[in-house]
Amino acid sequence: MAAQLGTFRSCMRWFVLGVGALSLWGCPPPRPAVIYGPDAPLTVDDYDNILGTWTRSGQVYRLLDNKLFVTATYHAPEFRRAFAVAFPDIYGHGGKITRRELVDLTGGVEQYNNFFLAVYTPDARWNDLARDDSIWHLSLRGSSGSVVGPADIIPIKMDENLRTVYSYTNRFDKMYLVRFPLQDSLHRVVIDATTKNFFLRVASALGAVELEWELTDPAKPGKSDS
Questions:
Q1: Range of the domain at 84
Q2: Residue 62, beta-bridge partner list
Q3: What does the longest C-alpha to C-alpha distance in the chain come to?
Q4: Model confidence over 9-45: pLDDT tens digits?
Q5: Which of 18, 117, 142, 219 has its CA 20 to 30 A from that of 160?
Q6: Is 187 left (phi over 0), alpha (psi -120 to 50) or beta?
Q7: What is the DSSP letter of 135?
Q8: Would you say 62 and 205 are in contact if contact means Cβ atoms under 8 Å apart?
Q9: Does pTM surpass 0.70?
Q10: Which residues, listed in sequence order, are joined to residue 33 by a DSSP beta bridge?
Q11: CB under 8 Å to 98, separation ≥6 — which residues?
């Protein structure tokens, strides 16, 4: 998995260099993940693998013109545990954010499905996800058919702590925390232990990208190593 994460980062660097139409071709898909599996012991060395497990990337382009590149990490329970083991002494701006989001879980964090997004657009005016009149529409869809829009999109100031935690980021990106409700308007849970996959969609008149997280049965944890 570490090799896959390295290839994943390499592909993203090619996009930044301006060949985004080719950036993800040939990149291996991340392994399926256990959403609520056994709390297996974790070490510092597990962090990169788990970051890769819960991170997806995609792009919007027309012909060969890149319009948007997005990388998203879902703050799953496993990812939170891995962060706590790997970064017990993180401080500063990014440290405060990550401790709130991943360890202390303050400010009602657990009342939402939370994602960290790194977004690049060639025209900076398009990178406006947090604006009420943004050109981009975000949605989260679960395997039950439930679909929710974001409850909150929070722009994040990048610093070296966050670059270490989310190692796929670079200076061309804008960062966001995106919170989605746990249930849709019909009170259907979007992501739980029975969910087989879920999708984060980013769309506008320029095009759309849908990122998929495939989940394995927590009763069969061996599948997550495939």
A1: 2-225
A2: 65
A3: 46
A4: 434 433 333 333 323 333 444 556 666 566 778 889 9
A5: 18
A6: left
A7: S
A8: no
A9: yes
A10: 215
A11: 83, 87, 90, 161, 162, 165
